[in-house]
Amino acid sequence: MGSNPTPSARNTSRPSADGGNLYLSVSKRDDGNIRRSWVFRYQAADGRDRRMGLGPAHTVTLAMARQLATEARQARLTGKDPLDQRKTEKAAQRLARAKDRTFDECAAEYIAAHQHEWRNAIHRRQWAQTLRDYVAPVFGKLPVQAVDRGLVIQALKPLWHAKPETAGRLRGRIETVIDYAEAHGYRPEGTNPARLGPIETILGSRSRKVDHHAALPYTEIGGFLAELKAKEAIAARALEFAIATATRTNEVIGAVWSEIDLDARTWTIPADRMKAERDHRVPLNKTATGILEAMAKFRESDFVFPGPTRAKLSNMAMLMLLRRMGGELTVHGFRATFKTWASERTSFPREIVEASLAHAIGNAVEQAYQRGDLFDKRRRLMDAWSEFCAAPGSAKVLLMRKS
After folding, report:
1. Whole domain around residue 166: which residue ranges?
2. Domain count, the chain
3. pTM here?
4. What would the pLDDT profile of 314-342 be if each residue is shown by its tens digit?
5. Residue 388's domain is classified under what CATH number?
6. Who's near 273: CB < 8 A, 6+ residues apart?
7. Is 258 in the same domain as 349?
8. Which of the two ends of the chain, N or C, has the fewest CB atoms closer than 10 A to its terminal CB?
9. 73-124 pLDDT, tens digit each
10. How many Cβ atoms sit within 10 Å of the Cβ of residue 145?
């Protein structure tokens, strides 16, 4: 080819050779345009015919193509495969570009790519929240390729025995994010420092002691509610409602008026706010209905118990109210109060009590046969709970104070 101009597009039967394994490939596209590109052809060590593209002719000049072909031949002289060498160099370049890719960025990418697989909205929120609360302060802003076992241990250690379930979930999420980073070439593969085996070797096996929520004896519920009713705060009404319905914090603070049917005295909590991931109908007893009717008179938001900005009440509002009242109780503990009362002071069957708490009843076989939600029977139980809480006999002892 020498210094002759680029071969004509008429040579479409086979590439035009320039010498030294350099060819000009000419082909016709589907749109009728002619495509010319430079190709370096050679035989690999195992005998395979290989072709390495050097770029389109309209961008890569003949001189440039010859220089690239020379570099490829020089690589072969040193025993290297030009294509394999190019792949190695590109991998190194990707790794170099990833130096600024932080763990937080990788976590956000992973969540965005996979959150559609998580049916439960609570699970989606917890995924991001645990990483934000426990990982971000330790190594969230560091390059993901800089995360080592020491940093992972630093994030996990405060939780490992104090909150073993949280620690276990957090470790798994860190491992998953780093696997994601490795798969995208942000760090070398096979270097994940959050694997369980080495972590347990360093921190030991996680404690699995059940951490019971502080609960009020049911004999003291009337006195506590009398004190609570005197509090003029939305958090107080929300807590009173949670006790009356035996529901969880997130279920109460997320309640919106469209879920409430005061005429039917029913509150339907959608599946995405339920731990069991299915809709749950709550029969509203006299106490719960009275609270809702009072809140409806001052309605300023779609939320039944709005926060200061008319958005959802903070998930800490009721707990902080309990702290200000001087006790060491938890909101969740009142569900235990309800369950103990129902078990010891009523004759309602266990499955009615468990269904009222939105717990799964029995094993998978029993659940398959239990198609109804026992709503009418649960209404009688919740009405009895309301009557007990309002009875003078349940108000003998006020909230225990810290010494």
Report:
1. 101-203
2. 3
3. 0.50
4. 888 999 998 888 777 889 999 999 999 99
5. 1.10.443.10
6. 121, 122, 250, 251, 254
7. yes
8. C
9. 887 888 888 888 888 888 777 767 666 789 999 999 999 998 877 756 667 7
10. 21
